[in-house]
Amino acid sequence: METKFETLFFNRVNQQYKPVKLDNLLAQHLLITGVTGSGKSTTALSIMMGMKAFHQNLIILDPTGEYQSIPNSRRVVLGRDSFLDVNHLNANEIGKMLDITHPQLLSKLPLAIESLQISRNVLKSTAVYKKIDRTRDNHQFNLKRLRIANKDFDLNLIADQLIEEFVIPRNDDKADFTLLGQQYDQDTIQSVWSDLETLRLALRSLKVTELPEDSSDNHIVHYDVGYLINLFVTHRASEQSLIIDLSEYANDIHLSQTLIDILTREVMINRQRFPKKFPVVVFIDEAHRYLPKVIASDNGIFSILREGRKIGVDLMLSTQSPLDLSAKLIGQFGSFICHRLGSPEEVDVLPPALQKSRLELMALPVGEAFLKTANSSDVTLVQITPASVEHNTNNISFDI
Ligand SMILES: Nc1ncnc2c1ncn2[C@@H]1O[C@H](COP(=O)(O)OP(=O)(O)OP(=O)(O)O)[C@@H](O)[C@H]1O
Ligand SMILES: [Mg+2]
């Protein structure tokens, strides 16, 4: 069966439906753009509902809880009925999640995590791992045992453990270099102190990683989102889509950014580890909010854009303005659905084929867009057929 959208895009010029192959629309990533209210989410929803008819695997990262009524979906709310297992994360991701920026703390973070892993799994302790007066030999022995032990650890102790990492030898003739350290490096600890306090605050308010308080309530099933992602990228999920609702963190832009970064990277890592023939589409709505100003080369969204195609991971992104994305990112998209744009500058960063319709682009009615698919420089003015289900827009209605 050829997977083609038959009645999704109505060609406004020749007044006929334009058949569009799913592959052409998605295989080189799709950018949906347009000012607020121009119809992006409605378009995305129509495409996703169409995709499900083709039994396409779909993961929706929903930063605002907008996609609640999609039928046949496994929807989890991070921080409420699902959690992120920190034991899957590397030090870099944990650093980002906790917004640790001090170079001294960042450089000690991998060691602190390793120490907490030793404490819990080798020493069976619930306390921090003391490095002061510990011999190098003893530490090596513990590290060897850790190799074959579990690697889980108590993230709540990370600030205290970081202090334990700042140990140095004595600076007199009693210095013993066979020990990891004999005294605390007071100067450094003082210089990182306020960052440590901020870190403690971040730990207190972080509820991504823990089960909610009512986790003993066995009516609520708690999911590890890493596990769900793994399931959805390695198994055909013909009936269901996975929606990860991140709305609990909607007010914390930094954390939302980091979570989307981590979750998209999780998609890539799982897929690289278990290559599969069938494609997976990841959709991120309102991406302008969640793209950091400076994109690191290991950013999850960027790595899907750059390397996803090779392993069958396609990205569908919506954003209010193409200016939200760097030229480097825009260059990775093969397909574009451009709803109304607000300024000529926004049109300027689009592929040349779309720039020809500059004036029309800035005057499009709601639900209409210019469509350009991969492998073609044709641009078509289309009206998008809304799906029968609705997404919740943020408009609040009042009962008067
Ligand atoms: N193709 C369409 N046909 C008919 N109505 C539409 C269409 N697209 C959007 N609308 C209507 O326009 C309104 C705004 O649409 P939508 O929420 O999709 O915009 P948006 O671009 O996602 O906005 P925002 O940036 O604020 O999220 C909705 O009430 C929706 O019903
Ligand atoms: Mg929207």
TrEMBL record:
Residues 26-367 form the AAA+ ATPase domain. It comes from the Bacteria. Pfam families: DUF87 (PF01935). InterPro entries: AAA+_ATPase (IPR003593), HerA-like (IPR008571), HerA_central (IPR002789), P-loop_NTPase (IPR027417). PANTHER family: HELICASE MJ1565-RELATED. This is DUF87 domain-containing protein. It comes from Leuconostoc falkenbergense. The lineage of its organism: Bacteria, Bacillati, Bacillota, Bacilli, Lactobacillales.
